[in-house]
Specification:
Layout lengths: L5 E6 L11 E13 L5 E11 L7 E7 L7 E7 L3 E5 L3 E4 L4 E3 L1 E10 L6 E4 L16 E9 L4 E10 L3 E9 L6 E7 L3 E6 L8 E7 L10 E6 L5 E7 L11 E4 L4 E3 L2 E16 L12 E15 L7 E4 L12 H4 L7 E8 L5 E8 L3 E8 H8 L2
């Protein structure tokens, strides 16, 4: 792992107030990060809220956004006789195998000073949230880039809905505060979408992670290209992980890529899974002889893409050496234990260090200041 110059927890659940008396906040994590024109750094922090009362003697309850323009939530109720299994406190499974959640997420703005380590302002009201036709079951894990030539900020984020399931939407802004929603750009079961912050050979470039229930290989990240940010193609699978590697359980893009003299630097996340056997569960409707349970650890890796042809990977973290791995208590204990999930990376003012913003244990937001020389030594370039 790399040596970290300085690191700290920026915000915790206690830094925020719940959006209503119906909820309690279980985590503030996985922030988008962007440096504004005045030098300050703006975060969009994912705020996860869980219903205080998600069941009673007769019903289970699940929140849903219903407004087309405002932050407005109702709570749906479902008879317990229609529920097959529970996954407390996350949600419940119906007899047909579908699921509803007991929590919902939105984003709140946190403004940092130019150092990226000191908070100037925390907004207590939801800043970006699900609406009826975009993320009715919540929005999650934003990433933001700025295109200098277009003078536009672009935000990609996971949008959850009953029909679209888990997809990725995007929005556009001139000031990083007021957003125009453009809708779904990567469809069903596609997450961790990050944009390269400039066009390459006349096209937008994105990393993304399609998911499926049937796979022939270890998990991969994909790279795709677009002329308009809506229709993507020229896809290629990027072979990043190896058998028995620290990232062989699952991988996905983390922070939007950073342009360096050696190539496009990508800080991504990977999962190491330790397999155990658990007793049979009805929610695993496709298995009759018990389900496989995994103990997971989310770490971060680093890799370099070619500046002119990002389909080509120059180098990456070695299979036995992650870039960052959980080691502090706040990274090991939380809503989901043993998690470092990077979603933002920004040069410090000297451009000799990188500020890496991450979610830790799906509970808090952290920042780590790391020397670029240390990163390049880790990557052996």
């Amino acid at each position: 792992m790399v040596e970290v110059e300085k690191e700290m927890v920026l915000v915790t659940p206690d830094s925020f107030k719940p959006s209503s008396k119906l909820f309690s906040i279980f985590g503030v994590f996985n922030p988008a990060a962007i440096r504004l024109k005045n030098g300050d750094i703006l975060l969009y922090v994912r705020v996860g809220e869980i219903l205080k009362k998600w069941q009673d003697a007769s019903y289970y309850y699940s929140p849903r956004c219903i407004s087309e323009t405002k932050f407005r939530i109702i709570v749906d109720k479902f008879s317990k006789d229609k529920v097959m299994d529970l996954n407390p406190p996350y949600g419940f499974y119906f007899n047909n195998g579908t699921v509803r959640l007991t929590y919902i997420s939105h984003f709140r703005r946190v403004l940092l000073d130019k150092t990226g380590m000191k908070i100037k302002k925390i907004e207590q009201k939801p800043s970006f949230y699900g609406v009826k036709d975009d993320g009715e079951l919540g929005v999650e894990d934003p990433r933001i880039v700025y295109f200098e030539k277009e003078k536009n900020y672009y935000m990609t984020y996971v949008s959850l809905s009953r029909l679209g399931n888990i997809s990725t939407s995007f929005a556009v802004s001139k000031d990083a505060y007021h957003w125009h929603r453009r809708g779904v750009t990567f469809r069903h079961q596609n997450k961790d979408v990050v944009l390269f912050p400039e066009k390459i050979n006349g096209r937008y470039v994105a990393l993304h992670r399609p998911e499926g229930n049937f796979e022939f290989t270890l998990p991969h990240v994909w790279i795709s290209f677009s002329k308009d940010l809506e229709y993507w193609g020229d896809d290629k699978v990027l072979h990043i992980t190896k058998e028995d590697s620290w990232d062989s359980g699952k991988i996905g893009a983390g922070a939007p890529p950073i342009k360096t003299k050696h190539g496009w630097l990508e800080i991504y996340h990977g999962v190491q899974r330790t397999q155990t056997k658990d007793k049979f569960s009805l929610k695993d409707i496709f298995k009759k002889h018990g389900r496989t349970h995994y103990s997971k650890k989310y770490s971060a890796g680093a890799l370099l893409f070619d500046l002119k042809d990002p389909k080509n990977i120059i180098t990456k973290s070695e299979s036995n050496t992650p870039f960052l791995s959980p080691r502090h208590k706040y990274e090991k204990e939380g809503f989901v234990p043993n998690v470092i999930f990077p979603t933002g990376a920004i040069y410090d003012t000297s451009k000799e260090y990188l500020l890496v913003y991450s979610g830790a244990a799906d509970k808090v937001t952290t920042v780590k200041k790391i020397a670029l020389s240390e990163i390049f030594e880790h990557l052996k370039v």
